[in-house]
């Protein structure tokens, strides 16, 4: 490997990290350096470029420790057989970069992943050393997210959880068959076993802290994972079902979806074209329905096409479900339960909360609902209000053209 300076390494390893989508920083413990002790904070400090799921604006230094790897996963640009320029940071270089970027107000945390070098244990030791040095040697109190390695010694993973806010282990692909075909060196049993160990450690530490204030924190922001979409033959229904299982079994904070992107000198077993990015977006919307709208996985899967198992790309999953189950509508905004209101296309969680609060004092009209949503035209066919009943719309045999978003030509210099 050619000798590179830190700037050249940063260019290579920051670019290589862009394929990992799981780097939000919600749910972490609050830490601050106010009072003159330590450095950094997990609160909204610095020049921010992204929004976490809880609404905070954040920016993270997102890099790989190295893009060298002893594995040969077909879908990975950093695989052993890939002809890419390689680079590697030392643990000390990552620590200095993180502190330097934080002091310049560029970032408020670190997301660190890596290819596997020498062995899983050796690589995990290097990742842990970065987090340890930041926390213990420099009293860094900002956010740290470490990508952990399923094959590593459990004790190393446990040490990572003592220093990091969030840990993540990628399941990579939604089906066992897809993983065996595209990443034969990885084993779903080891991956899920490591995720189960993380879940147990997180829960045990949370219970201990309820009894003893001095008990150490362990990954207070929980764990997350990522699935690649479109590299294998898995349908959207398969992916939704896998995500639901992961949420239920391992209490994940997030499942991230990353649309497969064709890579240079790709393996012959990979598709030649990337899936539509809208497919990734629809999967995130489906994920939102399960996490915040009380949809069951089977209900989300029911919004997909029966023959192909794919969610429609031209309308969102919630609208697709409502059009498929029109017998559930319209619902009366003045009488319907929260569960039924959450299934109305165009009504979000906050809008439903406002409806439930407002109708205690007076009966709601269509104008009242219109003030709570972006598009009342999308809502009207599915609700009954004090002055509104969708008689003509409800009787239409084909409602989709009325409620589907209109295609528009965007202006380049609007």
Report on the biggest sheet. 6 strands, parallel
Percent of sequence in beta strands: 5-15%
CATH class of the largest domain: Alpha Beta
Q: Please trace the helix and strand order, writing H or E for each element.
A: HEEEHEHEHEHHEHEHHHEHHHHEHH
What average pLDDT do the residues reach? 85
The CATH topology of the largest domain corresponds to TIM Barrel
Helix content: 25-40%
- What kind of oligomer do you see? single chain
The low-confidence parts are: 41-51
Count of distinct strands: 10
User: Pairing-aware structural class of the strands and helices?
Assistant: alpha/beta
The main sheet orders its strands as 3-4-5-6-7-8
- Give the second-level CATH assignment, the architecture of the largest domain: Alpha-Beta Barrel
Describe the structure.
- InterPro entries: Aldolase_TIM (IPR013785), DNA_rSAM_put (IPR023874), Endo/Exo/Phosphatase_dom_1 (IPR051675), rSAM (IPR007197), rSAM_sf (IPR058240), RuvA_2-like (IPR010994).
- The structure is a single chain.
- By secondary structure, the protein is α/β, with parallel strands linked by helices.
- The protein has two domains: 6-225, Alpha-Beta Barrel (TIM Barrel); 325-403, no CATH class.
- Helices cover 39% and strands 9% of the residues.
- The chain has helices at residues 6-16, 91-103, 120-137, 154-163, 176-182, 188-211, 236-250, 277-292, 297-302, 317-324, 338-342, 349-358, 366-370, 376-379, 391-394, 400-403, and strands spanning 50-51, 57-58, 61-64, 109-113, 143-147, 166-168, 223-229, 254-259, 331-332, 383-384.
- The strands form three sheets. A six-stranded parallel β-sheet has the order 3-4-5-6-7-8. A two-stranded antiparallel sheet has the order 1-2. Strands 9-10 form a two-stranded parallel ribbon.
- Strand 5, helix 4 and strand 6 form a beta-alpha-beta unit.
- Helix 3 runs parallel beside helix 4.
- It starts with 5 loop residues before the first helix and ends in an 11-residue tail after the last helix.
- Residues 41-51 have low confidence and may be disordered.
